[in-house]
């Protein structure tokens, strides 16, 4: 199962080259991830992720330029790895015709009061399991030597 998020493009997202700036893609990923983890997860389990979660790592491959338009861009996300104390989320930023970027984010559940990482709760794990699909592969070929 994948979560589908429609992300609006803002005029300020465009850089001097006329396309959505690479850094803005991370904001699109964040918006989709927050929708999944802090809206849908809490609707399913009110205590899910309430003590916090932090990003430990981002990896992104930019495949095609995304130009400003009025239609939102789609962000699909799913879980590629579900550990005891981390979650890896895969993404595709796309529309019906084009995949603009593929990405991975490692999220670590975090106890904000204690100031340290923690394990996933049973409710968080139960919410995330239907989204598990470990078939994501790095879209970029190895760099020539």
Question: How would you explain this protein's 3D organization?
Answer:
With 145 residues, this protein is of the alpha+beta class. Helices cover 21% and strands 33% of the residues. The chain is built from two helices and six strands. Strands 1, 2, 3, 4, 5 and 6 form a six-stranded antiparallel beta sheet that branches. Strand 3 (73-82) and strand 4 (87-94) form a beta hairpin. The longest helix is centred in the first third of the chain and has 23 residues, at 22-44.
Question: Brief overview, please?
Answer:
The chain is α+β, with helices and mostly antiparallel strands and 145 residues long. The protein is 21% helix and 33% strand.
Map the helices and strands.
Layout: E1 3-7, H1 22-44, E2 53-62, E3 73-82, E4 87-94, E5 99-111, E6 116-117, H2 122-128
Antiparallel strand pairs: 1-3, 2-5, 3-4, 4-5, 5-6
Give the H and E element order.
EHEEEEEH
CATH fold group: Thiol Ester Dehydrase, Chain A
Instruction: Count every beta strand, where a strand is a DSSP E run of 2 or more residues.
Output: 6
Report the uncertain regions: none
How many whole angstroms does the radius of gyration measure?
Answer: 16 Å
What's the CATH first level? Answer: Alpha Beta
Features:
145 residues; alpha+beta; Thiol Ester Dehydrase, Chain A; 6-stranded antiparallel sheet; 2 helices; elongated
């Amino acid at each position: 199962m994948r979560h589908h998020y429609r992300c609006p493009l803002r005029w300020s997202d465009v850089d001097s080259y006329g396309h959505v700036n690479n850094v803005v893609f991370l904001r699109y990923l964040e918006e989709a991830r927050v929708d999944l983890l802090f809206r849908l997860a809490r609707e399913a389990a009110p205590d899910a992720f309430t003590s916090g979660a932090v990003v430990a790592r981002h990896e992104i491959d930019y495949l095609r330029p995304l130009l400003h338009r009025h239609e939102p861009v789609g962000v699909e996300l799913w879980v590629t790895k579900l550990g005891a104390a981390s979650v890896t989320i895969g993404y595709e930023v796309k529309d019906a015709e084009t995949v603009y970027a593929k990405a991975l984010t490692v999220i670590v559940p975090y106890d904000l009061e204690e100031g340290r990482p923690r394990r996933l709760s049973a409710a968080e794990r139960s919410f995330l399991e239907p989204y598990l699909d470990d078939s994501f592969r790095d879209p970029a070929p190895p760099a020539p030597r």
